[in-house]
Amino acid sequence: MKSTTLVIMAAGIGSRFGQGIKQLTAFGPSGEIIMDYSIYDALEAGFDRVVFVIRKSMLEDFKAVIGDRIAKRVPVSYAFQEMENLPAGYTVPEGRTKPWGTGQAILACKDIVKEPFAVINADDYYGKDAFRKVHDYLVSVDTESAKKYRFCMAGFVLKNTLSENGGVTRGLCRLDENGTLTQIHETRNIVKTADGAAVKQADGTLDKLDPETLVSMNFWGFTPDFIDELAGGFERFLESISGQETETTAEYLLPTIVDGLLREDRVDLTVLQSNDRWFGVTYQEDVPYVKQAFAGLVERGVYPGKLFA
Question: 295 or 163: which carries more pLDDT confidence?
Fold first, then answer.
């Protein structure tokens, strides 16, 4: 069976969360963090390596809280996403304070990841179903005879992915009449409403969304040639924002990158729908709910009381 790697993006600063590194906050009954549950589900599904994408300044914390512990069970590597990691000829614009987004995070894995790999966020809980489906896709996909990239994405139902405490960003998926993904639209400030979901505009108005819409939660299945695609795309992205007002805040994002490949008809992207309920930590106020949710999963026997005991 093919080797498969789980790449966990954990370099985000988490400015909305408040004090502390949210990826290292304990949520489980025995001190588990969200990543523990993702790794547990990934190993159960068949993944056999973990790569953490972090900032160098977080390395010792990561090793102490999770990395050294997980390394006893599965090979672990680290990739470093830094704002200064730019192609030759480019420099960090004055006023920029954080790295360049999820596309740059995966680009940091160049020379580290050489096998099919899944990508997830560190601070999202996805449920077991998505890991099984993405793993099975990655070990079965035929890329030798393909004229296009062949990737997959775990698709979640929008209503299952909202926070009670503020707006979230989701990649809204558009499918044609045959159920084929044709577009991913990265949409910010999606809020939960009394009758479903809506985009909250700057003036406070609400644009309704169908709560049954499938969304991207940055859970992807890629083949390693995608990393080379990212390298060229990152240079084009930097060139497009050079000298613009947006160069201090613009991000090179996976949903936007994949959407571009879809529009150019360069990828066949399989959406693997999961009906599991997502939960994660966007805001400090999310913490009690997430702790309660994990306690409930343990109580129902979905997970043991102590992972990796």
Answer: 295
In 210-250, the DSSP E strands lie at 214-222
In a domain, 170, yes or no: yes
**Contacts for 58 with CB less than 8 Å, ≥ 6 apart:** 10, 11, 21
Dist. CA 12–CA 24, nearest whole Å? 12
- The CA distance from 191 to 9, in Å, is 24
Within 10 Å of residue 251's Cβ, how many Cβ atoms?
A: 17
Residue 32 lies in a domain: yes
Distance CA 140, CA 125 (A): 25
Residue 304 lies in a domain: no
The two tokens of residue 38 are 């993702």
DSSP letter for 66, please: I
Task: For residue 98, give the CATH number of its domain.
Answer: 3.90.550.10
Print the domain residue range for 217.
Answer: 5-299
As a residue count, the chain comes to 309
CB 53, CB 5: distance < 8 Å: no
| Total domains in the fold of the chain | 1
Please check whether residue 268 lies inside any domain of the structure: yes
pLDDT in tens, 215-248: 999 999 999 999 999 999 999 999 999 989 889 9
Q: List the beta strands (DSSP E) in the chain.
A: 5-9, 49-54, 76-80, 117-121, 124-125, 149-157, 168-175, 181-193, 196-200, 206-209, 214-222, 267-274, 279-280
- Across the range 129-147, mean pLDDT stands at 89
Angle between helices 34-45 and 128-140 (to 10 degrees): 40
Tokens of 255: 């949903």
Identify the pLDDT of residue 1.
Answer: 67
Residue 298 has pLDDT above 90, yes or no: yes
